[in-house]
Amino acid sequence: MLFQSRHPLESKIGSGSSIRAVDHLEIPRSVAIATVLSHPDETAAVVAGFAAAGDLVMRNVAPGEWLVLSHIERSDSLERRLSGLLTDIADVVDQSEGRVLLRLSGPNVRRILAKGVAIDLDPSAFAIGQSVNLRCGHIAVNFARSGENEFELVVMRSFAESLLEDLLLMGREFDLSYGFSGGLADPD
Amino acid sequence: MASLIHCPHCGIRPKEEFTVRGDASLVRPEPDASDEAWHEYVHIRANPRGRTREHWQHLYGCRRFLVVERDTVTHEVYSVTDGAAAARGGSR
Ligand SMILES: [Zn+2]
Fold first, then answer.
1. CATH superfamily label, B4-87
2. Mutation test of the interface with chain B: which of A67, A135, A138, A154, choosing the one with the most B Cβ atoms within 10 A?
3. What average pLDDT is seen over chain B?
4. What is the pTM assigned to this prediction?
5. Burial class (CB in 10 A: 0-12, 13-18, 19+), A52
């Protein structure tokens, strides 16, 4: 049987905005995402495991719980690699089809986000690489600062359309543009 | 109601990110305790004016249960502790 992977926002976004504005909402097409849940008292060992792997993007969810993102790996290989890396100290579950990544960037990004997010977004208060779970409007998201003026939101699949609509409304004042990016080549 | 809660894991957040899960000062009776003791524990609640101790869950953040000590009159928050840590500390 042949399975086709279809992005949850496919019908909503299509080819995206015709003109790219300075403030842009980018939806990377294929991102491998896994949840990692540390066994009791193994948190430090898990963090050390991540550091040893080097190339993994870790997002804080709660004490002993993370989302791990990879833009270069396929979901099955990420899950396999993490499971091997964290044998007996953490549980790993692939979430690539269950979560959606949205990336918001541009000079006005903080003013856009301030309409839905209640944390201090000042560069001195929320450093590059920092991540937390929070509420954006009425939706729970994992939120991270991924660059100087760039933030990434990871949301559960079924909330992705709502969150997209909310973000576009929040960004309308700045003509926020949007569209898909990337996509891995087929394996064969 | 106290509008800003300092979650020990996530930082300062608005109360809208939390759900209040009730009195944290109650002690669960022994299984063979009297019906009166269980009735008290399950159904009877004071509605105190002043300092209270409650379970709050950070539903939109870390999803942990927290013990929040706050004042129902002044809205002042005295302390926020992780529920597991509070239970280990045995501070009831
Ligand atoms: Zn929290």
1. Folate-binding superfamily (3.30.2270.10)
2. A135
3. 92
4. 0.90
5. exposed
